[in-house]
Amino acid sequence: MIKFLLDYSSGVPVYRQIIDQIIFGIASGQLKLGEQLPTVRALAVELKVNLNTVSKAYKELEIRNILETQQGTGTFINKTENVIAEKEREDKLKEICVQFSSVAFSYGFTLDEVVRELKDIETSKK
């Protein structure tokens, strides 16, 4: 099970943050095929958000066949392959890079320093 963390100052709607975290959980292997998610009510209480917010996130993931809700049983991970469309992947990478570069450049790091550090991180993981 993943731990949901919300950032109310990010400007990203809460339901979208829930969707992104479920998709990331699947992509990273933290959520497995058939794994049960918290009920809408339980997750809404845990995150201190409106039931409709969680319901909207779950519904969108159901439409994409990533989640499956079985009446009386719960909501389960239905799909673990190709959960992120190529366009969505590219958009997310761009968003991450914009946020990351804004912080890095505000500290005075150059592009060369940032690229070198990213390469060092990649090398150290091998």
Order of helices and strands: HEHHEEHH
CATH arch. level architecture of the largest domain: Orthogonal Bundle
Backbone shape: elongated
> Regarding CATH, which class of the largest domain?
Mainly Alpha
Q: For this structure, what is the CATH homologous superfamily of the largest domain? A: Winged helix-like DNA-binding domain superfamily/Winged helix DNA-binding domain
Helix content: 55-70%
Number of helical segments with 4 or more residues: 5
Total discrete domains? 2
- Give the distance, in angstroms, between the N- and C-terminal Cα atoms: 27 Å
> Which structural class fits the helix and strand makeup?
mainly alpha
Assign the CATH topology of the largest domain.
Arc Repressor Mutant, subunit A
Major β-sheet strand ordering: 1-3-2
InterPro entries: Tscrpt_reg_HTH_GntR, WH-like_DNA-bd_sf, WH_DNA-bd_sf
Keywords: DNA-binding, Transcription, Transcription regulation
Pfam family, one: GntR
Domain HTH gntR-type: 12-80
